[in-house]
Amino acid sequence: MSVTDKIAREILSGADGDYDLAGYDSAQVETLVAEAFSAPITCNEMMRCSFVVGGGKKVRAKYSATLGKDMTSALIAKGFAEDKGAATSIDSQGTFKYQHNTGTDLKSVHVFPFVNISRAGGDAAHASDDQGSGDDGRFSPLKLCIAQSQDDFMQTVQLKVKSYGQKKKLHKYLKRVEGDITAIETKLVAMEALTPSEEEIYGSAKDLTDKLSWLEGEMTKMIDNGNLTAKERHYMLGQLSEKVTSIQAQLDKARVDGANEKKIAKFYATLALMNDKTDKLTAINPVKRDIKHAMEIAQLKYRLAGICISLHGIAGFAQFGRERCMHSSVAVNLHSALMKDFFGFLVAYSRGTVHYWERHGGDAIQTGTPI
Predict the structure, then answer these.
(1) Which of 13, 17, 117, 305 has its CA 20 to 30 A from that of 51?
(2) Residue (of 187, 228, 180) closest to 201 by Cα position
(3) Residue 327: its pLDDT value, please?
(4) How many C-beta atoms surround the C-beta of residue 209 within 10 A?
(5) Are the C-beta atoms of residues 161 and 170 closer than 8 Å to each other?
(6) How far apart, in whole angstroms, are the C-alpha atoms of residue 328 and residue 330?
(7) What is the pTM (predicted TM-score) of this model?
(8) What is the Cα–Cα distance from 35 to 7, expressed in whole angstroms?
(9) What's the DSSP call for residue 292?
């Protein structure tokens, strides 16, 4: 089945996330739910997909008055059940819950889909090593970040979480746990019993608000200093482009509806801010990060190229290069280097060594290695 909804495509990739359904009507919601949740999702951990379906008076106009009801009705039609105590644990799959966050004044529907966990490990809290502990009882890195003191957390991030993408993933995880803590506290107020996994989360989490605030500051510094990879910059530019399109649509609607000048001025100010951020990101010269085991990866790609030529000939290898190597970020870009000098590669291949790469790959491969 062809997936037409952008949010559904992202959900089916196996990554949970937060999604804004501003502008969605009943038919679009039905399509989203049908495409995303008709079958179990293959993923590495239990998922939670959060959909903003409304809010206070400042954002109310962006959402259909029946959006929340449309969402829950579509979910029920797919076999989901409402569970006010649902959390990101494997026993909550196939459930959803409605939440009004008074801090942000946004109304959300949190969906815990049916899943097929693609690897073993994890506990009932998150069904993966992101949240659970292994058989040896040790903390996973992400779970350790939750339980650490603020000072230890900051030191861990500075030593181990160096890229913007890694920091963003950690931020997303901490926000998810923060949401779980809120749900747990709601259960405690209602005098409801906690599951063992909920008790573990609630008892181990420390300083989440402070950690999130500090981490957000570190992410902002990376953007200001231009410390982004090409992929990270491309992703952020895409997000900004979507926001600009949405704000422009709201501005056009406000003009048609005859909104007052103050409201229109706010839209213009927001657009100017978004455009300024876009200009700054576009001006960034992306950084390249060292890849762990880059030399070994390059050597394996070399051997794989030799196998491809043995099986499919030069034409097959050329196709292999286009399909498999052009998007690789390893130290040696196999395809581009080989396309520059086919003869040199064939000589190296006939010798059964990687001496060719000493010339074309710099320091990535230091010594000749037999195929």
Answers:
(1) 117
(2) 180
(3) 38
(4) 9
(5) yes
(6) 6
(7) 0.52
(8) 9
(9) T
